Amino acid sequence: MPISIRVRLSVMMFLNYVIWGAWYVTLSTYLTSTLHFTGTQAGAIFGTTALASIISPFFVGLIADRFFATEKVLAALHFLGAILLWQVAGAQSFGMVYGLLLAYCLCYFPTIALTNSLTLQHMTDPGRDFPLVRVFGTLGWIAIGLIVGAMAVEKSATPFLLAAGVSVVMGLFSLVLPHTPPAGKSEPFSVRRVLGLDALVMLKDKSFFVFAIASVLACIPLTFYFSFTNDYLNDVHVVNAAGKMTLGQASEVGMMLVMPWILRRMSVKGILVMGLSAWAIRYALLAFGDAGPGVWMFYVAILLHGVCYDFFFMTGQLYTDQQAPAHLRGAAQGFITFITYGVGMYAGSLISGNALDYFTTGTGAAAVRDWKHFWISSSLGAAAILLIVILMFRTKAKIEATPESV
Fold first, then answer.
1. Could you read off the pLDDT of 256-265 as tens digits, one per residue?
2. Is pTM, for the whole model, over 0.85?
3. Which domains does the chain have, with CATH numbers?
């Protein structure tokens, strides 16, 4: 792959994830501390990302893959997204924020699939080159987190304005990306193919069925973390919470580097158990930590992100690919993405928001959160899912090397 294309693809990934990272981590802090929305309302607004994840495959499969060059679609989505983010920054009511953010997420989330597909179409060796380009997305997320934290704007609408500005830059930059004509122009549109429903036959395998159910359930405690950790850390007066939370993405990069070594030595079940155990431990640390002598618990909880995320979700994607027949591998990945990032994350957004309200007394600016029991409840939830996997996920399978990688 020519170096000029590699550089452009890397910058594309960096900018695309700067936009998402700018507002996503601090969203609940702004909603609850500044706009004084309830936990249920904040959870519902977080759910717009999951709704968009459910809907975006239809957009990509029906329009982006069939009629327009990918780089032009990216430019249009980011220009429109910049306008919507600017409007979100000025919205005050729940209805306006919800509607505008849902509209924005419907513009943004297709860009994740589009940037991935654009990148892969210009690579001769995706297995070798794609991780080296995709890592710039994680670096972009870390960079904007450090900037937002250093600016101390987590409780303001400024993150939306930062994201809007970068969206304009990304829209302009998209126009100089390598030309990528629509890949599925000659293919018929199929709802079953887009959502991966052809892979439902795999649920006849009891182990995979248990894994699929556990994957959906695991998204619920995952959403507790993504939705309300920044709000919590600011509420207990942790300095530069957004900056500190980027340590989670740094640990994720580190875990990606050691995952091949772990996959060769442990069974799928063993790795999943370790991942879910880390979730339960992480929430217990959040419950009992504080901004004083106990701040080390917060650091450990954040640094566990690599184990929490990669050990369960990355291993799950590899297990899914390995269990699927060759002709169903694409459908299987589409299915597991739909039930986790779509169904699971949406359920988690609603449940976490209602849980926060359950552990809250008072309303508006006078609201007081019982964060300790909020995090204990999510720790127990993760422990319950862990128990399901230990007792019911009965496989000794390991992730095997493909013939190409031997």
1. 778 778 888 8
2. no
3. 1-179 (1.20.1250.20), 195-406 (1.20.1250.20)
